[in-house]
Amino acid sequence: MSQLEFNEARAKALEAMYMAPDIVAQRSRTLEMLAVRPGERILDIGIGPGLLADDIARLVGPDGHLAGIDASPAMIKMARTRLAAMPHAEAKTGDATSLDYEDGFFDAAVSTQVYEYVSDMPKALAELHRVLRPGGRTLILDTDWRSLVWHSSDEARMSRVLNCWDGHLADPHLPAKLGILLRHAGFHMARVEILPMFSPFWQPVSYAAGIMKSIHAYAQEHGEKHGLAAEEVQAWYDDQLRLIERGHFFFSVNRYAFIAMR
Fold this sequence. Notes:
Elements: H1 8-18, H2 21-34, E1 41-45, H3 51-60, E2 65-70, H4 73-83, E3 89-93, E4 106-112, H5 121-131, E5 132-143, E6 149-150, H6 155-166, H7 175-184, E7 188-199, H8 207-222, H9 230-245, E8 251-261
Parallel strand pairs: 1-2, 1-4, 2-3, 4-5
Antiparallel strand pairs: 5-8, 6-8, 7-8
Helix pairs in contact: 1-8, 6-8, 8-9
């Protein structure tokens, strides 16, 4: 596995992608499912640039508390800047498998696109269970990359590029087993919803556009470890550009939101 390092440049690119309308809509739906109430204490595991955390902090208000952790110092810097005007919100570096909080401290926790990077999920979920109060809730959202439908002129080459991309994750198919893992950790499942990232045609400001650039950059850097030459990666990218020019672009992938109770 060659995980992405979220340095300052990648953090800024991720923030820009998270401003796309389809991601904004996903964030709105995530807030709706989490059902944040004023005065609650909420943990954001993998706070990233702080966009979701900013919304949560405003919803819990000054009588509540928003705590966010992330492994990337660049992400923490961006999140702290975004949350600076709200003293009841904090962001600090942290590890999902070792949460630096008291038992039962939080009313709720949220994690979006994070646990697929975590190698020891039983330990991470045991920590999540520990820091939630009895009756507390969690919302976990991750992608199963087997759900991807992406048009290409060369399906075999597309598969090789996506196999390389899978290498940046601890588990690119986590949602398929997440329900079982949550139950083993002591959670009670409430419901699961699918949140598709869907671009039936080319949209230059979209998740699909952002992830296409991310995959291209990652495969150029790590392709040789997966038997991919730089020329083949570029041919994949150029093919997508030609499909876009002809109006033949199509992209769809599913994210799965698990809501569970302690």
